[in-house]
Design goal:
- It contains five helices and eleven strands.
- It has about 180 residues and is an alpha/beta fold.
- Strands 6-5-4-1-7-8-11 form a seven-stranded mixed β-sheet.
- A hairpin with a 2-residue loop joins strand 2 and strand 3.
- Helix 3 packs across helix 5 and helix 4 packs antiparallel against helix 5.
- The longest helix has 25 residues.
Length: about 180
């Protein structure tokens, strides 16, 4: 199991993100070390992990991420989709879309949560050429996805915020990784 964070470069049309998403950066975390896949020239010494060409990304492994886009292949677990399904049953509505920062705050996989850059801040940093900054944000996200998944799976429950009551209920879960398109 590996945590994954993917960065897409996208064009904006009339204020909306176009459907033309191009993967430019993938960061993974296996619980011990990061690995990066990109065609951008980055320094392994500065990032502190191996950097591989994007075409060498091993899509046949098991990944856990947040808000994965449809182009992901292989075994995956999307934290946002799963939490939305769980909260839909509990809240008796369409479910709550939780950001990665919210899930980390409510489930506390790490004692200290670093600043998570918003998607728009990341895109602007990328366009300004601040690739190292974006790479580090992605590496942190991959680690956070892995940590949230392992903590929730170990404890058997997920916490989230009920906006109506303001409380943070929990729901018992039994999370497993499935192949794309495979149902429970």
């Amino acid at each position: 199991m590996r945590g994954i964070a993917t960065f897409y470069d996208s064009n904006f049309e009339e204020g909306w993100r176009s459907e033309d998403l191009q993967v430019v950066f993938i960061a993974t975390w296996d619980g011990f070390k990061h690995e990066v896949f990109t065609n951008i020239d980055l320094s392994e010494r500065i990032l502190g992990c191996p950097i591989n060409p994007l075409k060498e990304w091993p899509s046949n492994k098991e990944y856990v991420g947040h808000n994965l886009v449809g182009s992901q292949t292989g075994q995956y677990f999307d934290l946002m989709d799963e939490v939305k399904k769980i909260t839909a049953k509990y809240l008796d509505n369409e479910g709550k879309r939780c950001s990665l920062g919210e899930l980390a705050r409510w489930n506390q996989p790490q004692p200290l949560i670093n600043d998570l850059g918003s998607k728009m801040r990341r895109l602007m940093a990328w366009r300004k050429g601040q690739h190292i900054k974006v790479a580090r944000w992605c590496m942190e996200d991959a680690r956070l996805c892995y940590d949230i998944f392992t903590k929730v799976r170990r404890n058997g429950e997920i916490r989230f915020k009920d906006n109506i009551t303001g409380k943070k209920p929990f729901v018992k879960v039994n999370w497993v990784v499935r192949a794309k398109g495979e149902e429970e």
